[in-house]
Write a structure and sequence with these properties.
Layout lengths: L2 H8 L19 H8 L9 H32 L4 H50 L2 H6 L2 H43 L1 H8 L2 H38 L1 H6 L3 H53 L5 H42 L21 E8 L8 E8 L4 E6 L5 H8 L7 E6 L2 E2 L5 H5 L2 E4 L8 E2 H6 L7 H10 L3 H6 L7 E2 L8 H15 L3 E5 L7 H15 L3 E5 L3 H5 L3 E6 L2 E6 L1 H7 L2 H15 L1
Parallel strand pairs: 3-10, 3-11, 6-9, 9-10
Antiparallel strand pairs: 1-2, 1-4, 4-5, 7-8, 11-12
Helix pairs in contact: 1-10, 3-4, 3-6, 3-11, 4-6, 6-7, 6-11, 7-10, 8-10, 8-11, 10-11, 15-17, 17-18
Bound molecules: adenosine-5'-triphosphate.
């Protein structure tokens, strides 16, 4: 099956669309290169100079040995039958080779350590920077694209730092050294041998570019295949339940064949390069033999010079072909580093002031003072909202989907700053306070509890990393999670996979309650699960909730009537505005929006 056929076949599979954001080639940019080189700075005292000295030693030895063999061994020692000089030269050359071996071993070792350390530092810096970024950064990007930057883009710099930079220096020194020596030994022979150089250089650059583009296509196809694979595995349950396996496989076959085709083309093009270098080498040798023989016969050069030339010619094409490779690495590094720097230059838009204050004994008195907020310019999510949540109160936020309930919760945790007005806790504008001291006082329990891979014990302890096993178990007991945990094969030590697939929705909820209770926050934000849970679990969760709410200010994005009814204050939202507020009885009497909402829930229950 050809790529074209696959594309035709796959054209009806428009559902599968993966943006090809893999811009692999970028023009060389000095500023960016310098910024990259800056990562070598911590190693300028030990590893880097060590590697450069080792590289210089081995390069100089490689440059010197052919002269020793040609001019000294052949012309002087053998030509003049000087045995003691010959012995002396053999020992010197052996020692030099040994030295070069040691220097090379050290260079490779140090350069590898250097490259790995730089990549380690870069990845560490990138990860900790991304962790600090605000929610609006993650709103704009998929988790997959962030992953690609931290893994692949950083990886593609590894080759540059391990071999690229030192090899570049080595090859430049080697090439210039060889050219200078050849001209010193015999200018006419050097000119004759090197005359093909510009032509070969031109052709090889063209070939390289062509090969590079083919490999870029391979990379793009691979990333497309990865995206599809990732999505397929994540959504396998939905795919199977909608019987879409055939369509899915058909698309995968298409991507897989495209990948095969591109790789085949790239391999084919690459396969021409090696023989081309060999051919250039052969042409150089033919010129050397014919013109060199003429120069020897006319007594213009000695046999020693001829032999040295043969040695140098053999060494010549390796750096040239490697320089092309390094150029490739540089271009790939330009693209990758641009993407990495784009992340590193991103600043959290929720900033902490230098003189930010710390919350001491937070009471949990929340005030929204004419708060206006938009996620983006084209739509306002909250319109001049003013509200108060007293310490210890349970406040329910109700309203249709998209009315702004989660936005209010996001502003309390200061995941975003208001566009106008202020959010205050205990009278302090949140923008004047340290983020850490705010967030350690708040726990958020989301609808879809995130379970990290690890044991149940570790997952609950996430609420307070310093808590003892006893405290963890105590918290689980209070919210009633203890019962289902003790039924698990390994109790608290049961391993749960990422996202907690082995637990039911209700169990995950109880786990997240235990986590929140352990954290013992002053403010609790609860995005209540809408998923229908059986009555028994519902009762358990309600009981657990009561325990959890005791003595804290709680903001509940509530869907269940049972929860809402018991709230001290119910705030009804619509399109980012407060329609009405009060407790259940007052609002029912008003016969407004809340009354309608409750009525519709009852109608629905009746219909069931
Ligand atoms: N990260 C975001 N970027 C841009 N717009 C957003 C973002 N999050 C929410 N919105 C928009 O802001 C408005 C309020 O959303 P919000 O999530 O607060 O509603 P909600 O009442 O919590 O809804 P639901 O009950 O469905 O969770 C909606 O119009 C929504 O589309």
């Amino acid at each position: 099956m050809t790529a074209k056929q696959t594309k035709k076949q796959a054209s009806h599979l428009n559902r599968f669309y993966y943006p090809l954001d893999q811009q692999v080639e970028k023009p060389f940019n000095w500023k960016q290169m310098l910024r990259l080189l800056f990562y070598l700075k911590p190693y300028t005292k030990n590893l880097l100079p060590g590697a450069i000295i080792a590289m210089l030693v081995s390069t100089i030895i490689r440059l010197v040995v052919p002269i020793l063999i040609g001019t000294w061994v052949i012309d002087k020692a053998i030509g003049e039958s000087n045995v003691s000089l010959l012995t002396y030269l053999i020992i010197t050359i052996s020692v030099l080779y040994l030295l070069s071996y040691v220097a090379n071993t050290l260079r490779i070792r140090w350069v590898n350590i250097l490259g790995q350390r730089v990549i380690h530092d870069l990845r560490k810096g990138l990860f900790s920077h991304v962790q600090r970024l605000s929610h609006n950064f993650f709103d704009k990007r998929s988790a997959g694209s962030i992953l690609v930057r931290i893994l692949n883009d950083v990886n593609s710099l590894q080759e540059l730092f391990t071999n690229g930079i030192i090899n570049l220096l080595m090859d430049i020194i080697m090439l210039s050294g060889i050219i200078i020596i050849l001209f010193v030994l015999s200018p006419p022979l050097a000119l004759a041998v090197l005359i093909i150089l510009p032509i070969m250089f031109f052709i090889s650059t063209k070939m390289r570019r062509n090969i590079r583009r083919s490999w870029q296509n391979v990379r793009i196809q691979k990333s497309r295949m990865n995206s599809h694979l990732n999505e397929s595995m994540q959504g396998i349950r939905i795919t199977q339940s909608f019987s879409q396996e055939k369509e899915n496989t058909e698309f995968f076959n298409g991507v897989n064949t495209d990948n095969y085709e591109n790789e085949r083309i790239a391999m084919k093009k690459s396969a021409y390069f090696g023989p081309f270098v060999e051919m250039s080498n052969a042409i150089g040798t033919v010129i050397l033999i014919s013109f060199g023989a003429h120069l020897i016969l006319t007594d213009q050069i000695g046999i020693g010079v001829f032999v040295s030339f043969a040695f140098y010619l053999g060494m010549f094409w390796e750096p040239i072909s490697r320089l092309g490779q390094i150029y490739n690495q540089l271009l790939v590094a330009m693209a990758s580093s641009e993407r990495i720097f784009e992340f590193l230059d991103e600043e959290p838009n929720v900033e902490e002031k230098k003189d930010a204050k710390v919350f001491k004994d937070m009471k949990g008195h929340i005030v929204f003072d004419k708060v206006q907020f938009s996620y983006n310019e084209d739509r306002v999510a909250l319109h001049e909202i003013s509200l108060e949540m007293k310490p210890g109160q349970t406040v329910a936020l109700v309203g249709h989907t998209g009315s702004g309930k989660s936005t209010i919760a996001n502003l309390i945790s200061r995941f975003y700053d208001p566009t106008k007005g202020a959010v205050k806790i205990d009278g302090h504008d949140l923008r004047d306070m340290k983020l850490d001291s705010l967030r350690t006082n708040i726990s958020v329990v989301l609808q879809d509890t995130f379970i990290f891979s690890g044991t149940i014990m570790e997952n609950i302890r996430f609420g307070r990393p310093g808590a003892s096993d006893q405290e963890v178990m105590e918290a689980a007991k209070v919210v009633g999670a203890d019962e289902f945990i003790s039924r698990l094969s390994n109790g608290y030590e049961t391993e749960v996979e990422e996202r907690g697939n082995i637990l039911s929705a209700g169990e995950r909820q109880l786990l997240s309650f235990a986590r929140a209770l352990l954290a013992d926050p002053r403010i609790l934000i609860l995005d209540e699960a809408t998923a229908s849970i059986d009555t028994e679990t519902e009762i358990k969760i309600q009981t657990a909730l009561k325990k959890l709410l005791e003595g804290r200010t709680a903001i509940m994005i509530a869907h269940r009537l049972s929860t809402i009814r018991e709230a001290d204050n119910i705030i009804v939202l619509e399109h980012g505005r407060i329609l009405e507020q009060g407790n259940h009885d007052t609002l029912m009497k008003q016969k407004g929006e809340y009354y309608e909402l409750v009525k519709s829930q009852f109608d629905m229950l009746d219909a069931l």
